[in-house]
């Protein structure tokens, strides 16, 4: 197989925020997954697990979304601040337990800062109110002395947190209210208008980033209808401030009567799930085009102070593999992640990278103990899944320019390439998801090679994963490194089956 790597005509930079994460009060994502309490035997920083903090600090998720998901629409932020926390009951996705609210706003924002992440807060549009939202914004971001900024100070945080990203509603077409697009845009207008002036004023440096709840990307007819209708509604009156459109997409694999398993599967299941991941690309392109069409239809500004909504970023606020059996787990939506999930994670991230001109931010569902998890915990036990290794290997692409990779001879449906460049260093990803075939690739590069390195995550069996008992069974490793190599001797590489490789190629 021969591939050619070239500069892309239209410069496309990879926004680091495509590597974001999502945590929710759901199953053990937060309780046990992050929060163990200050008195716990498990080493912690102010009640948050040290093992999890250290692991996430290494991948530095550029963005982290919280408190949900569906839970956001049942969350009252006041329950989770100050000395006395209110206990509530959490039914979301079968969590079925008492939520103590010990991990509240201040704890989340401390956690985000410990892992070098920017917070994205989703407000409660369903059971909350515009007042609750504005007061939350005041508590978090108000500079001037008010009773809410004083309350923040009393909780130990004098300086405003300066949270930029605010989601208004979650999956409003479903669990977030079963709304019509018309109802939702009306509510959105109200909330966006009610937000404190420091957040709303687009001319001010204190302006904040407002995110509209987007379509259910899994349903072709509905998602087209939703996006078109939302854009139409925005055009009906002067549009309020809106910066992003939050699409949700899951790679569902449910099986007969929700029997599909994350660990017990055959070759057919392997290929089906991987095919599912590849379908995301067309969805993103379609949704991007619909948003652009909608923006073109917006009325021209009339008054002096009228602003035209020029752009609205496409965001993928929830994504990941979701197997049928996750619905029946004792810990809600708990899933093991195998090499199959590492491969689909690599495919999705490469789709996001290649479409970085269209998608500006994404957050994977969810970081710990839920669905496409990077980390699994159980009391003192802790393990990094192979999905974690993909995020770690792929960190090198952040802020790079996207390159074009073309296959110039016989193609294989089971191999995927992606490349980016930072100054003179090319990073090339090769995913071979064939179950048996080693692939030999000839790479045609634009120049001489000074340095070369291959990092690889490869399985011998499709079910391979890491467990609490065998935590380092499937780990990425640098398997080759060379200096002062010439193009000829190097660029015939062989790629193992069931593997993801990242090549670092320093050009002369
Ligand atoms: O990530 C799990 C759930 O999936 C989220 O709470 C919800 O937004 C989505 O349906």
UniProtKB/TrEMBL annotation:
Keywords: Carbohydrate metabolism, Glycosidase, Hydrolase. Homohexamer; trimer of dimers. Pfam families: Alpha-L-AF_C, ASD1_dom. Gene3D superfamilies: Glycosidases (3.20.20.80), Golgi alpha-mannosidase II (2.60.40.1180). This is non-reducing end alpha-L-arabinofuranosidase. It comes from the Bacteria. InterPro entries: Alpha-L-AF_C, ASD1_cat, GH, Glyco_hydro_b. It catalyses: Hydrolysis of terminal non-reducing alpha-L-arabinofuranoside residues in alpha-L-arabinosides. It comes from Leuconostoc mesenteroides subsp. mesenteroides (strain ATCC 8293 / DSM 20343 / BCRC 11652 / CCM 1803 / JCM 6124 / NCDO 523 / NBRC 100496 / NCIMB 8023 / NCTC 12954 / NRRL B-1118 / 37Y). Belongs to the glycosyl hydrolase 51 family. Its EC number is 3.2.1.55. Pathway: Glycan metabolism. GO terms for biological process: L-arabinose metabolic process; polysaccharide catabolic process. One of its GO terms (molecular function) is alpha-L-arabinofuranosidase activity. Residues 317-499 form the Alpha-L-arabinofuranosidase C-terminal domain.
């Amino acid at each position: 197989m021969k591939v050619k790597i070239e500069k892309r005509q239209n410069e496309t930079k990879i926004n680091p925020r495509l590597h974001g994460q999502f945590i929710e009060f759901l199953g053990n994502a937060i309780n046990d997954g992050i929060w163990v309490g200050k008195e716990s035997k498990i080493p912690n920083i102010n009640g948050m697990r040290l093992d999890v903090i250290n692991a996430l600090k290494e991948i530095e998720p550029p963005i982290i979304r919280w408190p949900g998901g569906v839970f956001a629409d049942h969350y009252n932020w006041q329950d989770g601040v100050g000395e006395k926390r209110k206990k509530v009951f959490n039914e979301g996705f079968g969590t079925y337990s008492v939520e103590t609210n010990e991990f509240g706003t201040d704890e989340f924002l401390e956690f985000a800062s410990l892992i070098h992440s920017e917070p994205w807060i989703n407000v409660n549009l369903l059971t909350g109110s515009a007042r609750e939202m504005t007061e939350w914004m005041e508590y978090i971001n108000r500079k001037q002395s008010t009773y809410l900024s004083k309350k923040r100070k009393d909780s130990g945080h004098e300086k405003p947190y300066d949270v930029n990203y605010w989601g208004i509603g979650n999956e409003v077409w479903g669990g977030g209210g079963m709304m019509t697009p018309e109802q939702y845009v009306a509510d959105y207008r109200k909330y966006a208008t009610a937000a404190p002036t420091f957040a709303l004023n687009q001319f001010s440096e204190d302006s904040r980033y407002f995110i509209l709840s987007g379509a259910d990307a899994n349903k072709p007819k509905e998602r087209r209808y939703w996006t078109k209708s939302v854009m139409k509604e925005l055009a009906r009156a002067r549009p309020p401030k809106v910066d992003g459109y939050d699409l949700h997409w899951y790679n569902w694999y449910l099986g007969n009567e929700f029997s599909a398993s994350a660990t017990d599967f055959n070759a057919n299941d392997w290929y089906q799930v991987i095919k599912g991941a590849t379908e995301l690309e067309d969805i993103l392109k379609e949704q991007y085009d619909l948003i652009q069409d909608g923006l073109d239809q917006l009325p021209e500004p009339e008054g002096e102070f009228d602003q035209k909504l020029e752009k609205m970023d496409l965001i993928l606020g929830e994504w990941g593999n979701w197997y049928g059996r996750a619905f029946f787990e004792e810990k809600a939506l708990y899933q093991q992640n195998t090499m199959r999930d590492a491969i689909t994670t690599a495919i999705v991230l490469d789709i996001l990278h290649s479409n970085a001109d269209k998608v500006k931010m994404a957050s994977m569902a969810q970081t710990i103990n839920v669905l496409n998890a990077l980390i699994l915990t159980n009391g003192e036990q802790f393990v990094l899944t192979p999905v974690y290794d993909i995020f770690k290997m792929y960190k090198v692409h952040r802020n790079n320019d996207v390159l074009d990779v073309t296959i110039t001879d016989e193609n294989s449906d089971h191999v995927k390439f992606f490349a980016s460049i930072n100054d003179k260093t090319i990073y090339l990803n090769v995913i071979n998801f064939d179950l048996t075939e080693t692939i030999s690739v000839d790479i045609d590069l634009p120049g001489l090679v000074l340095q070369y390195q291959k990092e690889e995550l490869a399985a011998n069996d499709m079910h391979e994963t890491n467990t609490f008992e065998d935590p380092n069974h499937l780990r990425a490793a640098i398997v080759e490194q060379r200096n002062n190599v010439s193009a000829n001797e190097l660029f015939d590489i062989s790629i193992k089956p069931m593997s993801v490789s990242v090549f670092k190629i320093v050009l002369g």
